[in-house]
Fold this protein.
Amino acid sequence: MSRTTVKVEKLTVTYNGKVALHEAHLELKAGSIIGLVGMNGSGKSTLFKAIMGFVPPIGGRVLIKGMPIKQAQKQNLVAYIPQSEDVDWNFPINVQDVVMMGRYGYMNLLRIPSIKDRQAVAESLAITNMNPFKYLQIGELSGGQKKRAFVARALAQKAEIILLDEPFAGVDIKTEKAIIELLLELREKGHTILISIHDLSSISTFCDDVVLINRTVLAYGPTREVFTEENIALTFEGMMPAKGVLNGR
């Protein structure tokens, strides 16, 4: 049986006195891809940031491989790939240096890369097919290449758990399929991947489990059991999915 890598227990988070997430509970299994589904403002990004320790909860807790977040961070276990709009694409840094940022947790204060650091970056660039672009400024990349660059950074970090916030936003179908293929490869290597998805039609094609969220976790578990019309209507407050959504057509 797959072991739990992330456990969220009665997690409550507020922003400016308003509840963004209320007593959320879920468990993420190792070696699986989990789709995170909900409306805009439903708490998806809040959940990601809470798992990363970026926002403090007012109640509940997050355990990563049985450890508190700070302890897990010291072991570089979790990597977060934010939405594109959260990144300054004009920052003067090339792809290779972005990927090297994944190694900062292993370096001393001077951040001088070791041979091991350089090897980890080279391997990550190769896995994500980003070697040909490693000297380009990050903003020169296409939408799909930008996503792969940040996946490479997560791999260089040696993160076992990868959180992706809307990675398919702004990319074409061909690029989306390429990213999905990469995620499937990472799953086979044992990574746990939590990915927020706006396009419901692709979920059943590659997600092992699904988390449905609307300011709390409404349901989570195997896609074939949880990703139902009834649960989706509850998640989207009465709006039913378009025909073909549940079977990926």
